[in-house]
Specification:
Blueprint lengths: L1 H18 L2 H9 L8 H26 L4 H4 L4 H12 L1 H16 L11 H6 L1 H13 L1 H12 L3 H25 L5 H27 L6 H8 L1
């Protein structure tokens, strides 16, 4: 059971680090809901976009089955680098996310409401949400690839379950934040302060879990 607890902690950290910013544009999308653009477009679009990011990161898992674990652990430097970058450019990143969300949500078309799940999935408005999710989640791939590569199949399943559950939580919270917009800046302010440190923790966890420190003598010899 110890592996499950440690995997849950890593999964929660990864989910927070990679999906926290989603509440910014999700709140903007929910705030633009009308007769033709419904909450289900936002929710389904968010899950479709997140799934695309997961599939784009899965090659890391399959690569981890071939490449030695200690070398895979070097990929843990990516989340560390992203975390440090976010510490330096935190304000700039926040402005970029908001600009993307506002630009894409402004193109909603007036059409009759479609109620079926298949019709909602095929609706272009759903893919506007997905496109923002993918654009905003570019860094997610840099985090998921080393995380997936250092995981076995059971751990990967736990991490993905936690991440998908967290996406659902953000959808719920973002929908309710449209009714209490004063809470959104507070959540964003404190979340961004924690965000870079969670990324650094994830990267260090991957390095330690993969026992990458064993490569130090070899790397030192190569340097000489």
């Amino acid at each position: 059971m110890s592996w499950l607890i440690s995997t849950l902690i890593i999964g929660i950290s990864a989910a927070f680090a990679t999906t926290f910013d989603d509440n910014l544009y999700l709140t903007a999308f929910f705030g633009k809901v009308n007769r033709s653009f419904r909450p289900k477009h936002v929710v389904i679009g968010e899950f479709l976009g997140f799934t695309a990011l997961v599939f784009a990161s899965l090659p890391g898992f399959f690569g981890g089955l071939i490449i030695p674990t200690t070398w895979i652990g070097l990929l843990g430097l990516l989340p560390v680098a992203i975390g440090i970058s976010n510490l330096i450019n935190r304000e700039e990143k926040g402005e970029t996310v908001q600009a993307v969300s506002v630009d894409l949500t402004s193109h909603a078309k007036s059409a009759r409401q479609k109620k079926s799940l298949l019709a909602t999935i095929r609706d272009p408005q759903t893919y506007r949400v997905s496109s923002v999710t993918i654009a905003n989640g570019g860094n997610n791939i840099g985090i998921y690839v080393p995380l997936f590569a250092s995981s076995n199949l059971p751990s990967l399943g736990v991490i993905l379950c936690v991440c998908y559950f967290t996406v659902g939580v953000w959808c719920f919270l973002s929908y309710n934040l449209t009714r209490n917009p004063l809470m959104a800046p507070v959540l964003t302010r404190y979340g961004r302060k924690i965000f870079p440190f969670v990324l650094i923790y994830l990267g260090l966890s991957i390095l330690i879990k993969s026992e990458t420190y064993r490569l130090l003598p070899s790397l030192a010899m190569l340097g000489n």
